[in-house]
Amino acid sequence: MKTLNAHIKSNNFTNLYLLHGEEDYLKKFYENKFKEKILSESMEMMNFDFYEGKSANPEAINDALQTVPFMSEKRLAIVKNSGLFATGRKDDSEKMAKVTENIPDTSILMFIEDNVDKRNSLYKKLSKIGVAEELNTPSEAELTDWVIKLFKPSEIVVSRAAASLIVRTVTADMLSIEKEVKKLESFKKKGEVLMPEDIEIICTKSLETRVFDLVDAVASKNISSALMMYKNLITLKESPIMILGLIYRQLRLIYLCSELAKMVSPAEIATSLNIKSFVVSNCIRQSKNFSKKTLLKAIDNCLKTDFNIKSGKISDVVGVEVLLIGASSS
């Protein structure tokens, strides 16, 4: 992102960009920044071309790029989710690779893609002659800093601990976090201090966070609490199979983190498992409520429950409920 920020700040752009990765918020942020910097409001319609999906045709894109901008220094073409960087459009990808070789200085081409295969010929070409940025969700510390910045215009007093709690509660993408911040801003007044209970009341917990709390209840042998959380998830129309998958994932992470903690630091565990540092800390904490034998048995029972549900031996709702009762009492 440093390259993108530097280009925006200096207003000195190259003529070829690719934005890809999991974080839609960042892709939209940079898309808007580029449009704001490159296109003047009065001439935007005359100097902007947009293509989306498989209708993004290399010949049409090339024609737009070769068009001289009208009363402006630059024209901008944005191509979104074209599939040109994945399998299925090999011929068009090769044609597009040739188009990228001859973009005039007066035109800028930006691809914004959800799916990118780095073995793709177009990707290899673009990464050599242009700027390819993978925009993934920042670290917990970076997200916490960002949340604090989001609150500044509202002048609500937000501690670093409160900002971190928002990140941990939502634990999703940046768009979801921004939405929760806006809800909190409408709840609190200028100059008021954001309290943990405000976050608990107002913020919508992600499914992952709810399942983490459910596993916490299981680990604490609190059967009634675990079943109540599960029934609440069912009331919210969450899929029992999805819940089962997340329980399995959480139990597996607890096991892996507890075993790796004997050999390496939490930071190294986070890197090797590609999870956030606070997830590692929470998993290690949860592992203290399980014996290794109990944990492995619970993981195995998740797989058996999944098989029994899919083979029709038990309903999905009841199957997960039985699993929770067994895990909480063992």
**What are the segments in which pLDDT stays under 50 over at least 5 consecutive residues?**
none
Order the strands across the largest sheet as they lie in space: 2-3-4-1-5
The value of Rg in angstroms is 25 Å
Structure class: alpha/beta
Write the H/E string, N to C.
HEHEHEHEHEHHHHHHHHHHH
Range of helix content: 55-70%
Multimerization state: single chain
Average pLDDT reading? 91
Strand segment count? 5
- Give the distance, in angstroms, between the N- and C-terminal Cα atoms: 48 Å
- Taken from the alpha-carbon principal axes, the silhouette is globular
Report the sheet-strand fraction.
5-15%
Tally of helical segments? 16
Give a description of the structure.
The chain is α/β, with parallel strands linked by helices and 330 residues long. It has 16 helices and 5 strands. The protein has helices at residues 2-10, 24-38, 58-66, 90-100, 121-129, 140-151, 160-170, 174-187, 196-202, 207-219, 223-235, 240-260, 266-273, 277-287, 292-310, 316-329; strands spanning 16-20, 48-52, 75-80, 107-113, 131-134. A 5-stranded parallel sheet has the order 2-3-4-1-5, sandwiched between helices. Helix 3 links the parallel strand 2 (48-52) and strand 3. Helix 11 packs antiparallel against helix 16 and helix 15 packs antiparallel against helix 16. The model has no long low-confidence stretch (mean pLDDT 91).
Offer a few descriptive terms.
330 residues, alpha/beta, five-stranded parallel sheet, 16 helices
What's the SSE blueprint?
Blueprint lengths: L1 H9 L5 E5 L3 H15 L9 E5 L5 H9 L8 E6 L9 H11 L6 E7 L7 H9 L1 E4 L5 H12 L8 H11 L3 H14 L8 H7 L4 H13 L3 H13 L4 H21 L5 H8 L3 H11 L4 H19 L5 H14 L1
Parallel strand pairs: 1-4, 1-5, 2-3, 3-4
Helix pairs in contact: 3-4, 4-5, 6-7, 6-8, 10-11, 10-12, 11-16, 12-14, 12-15, 13-14, 15-16
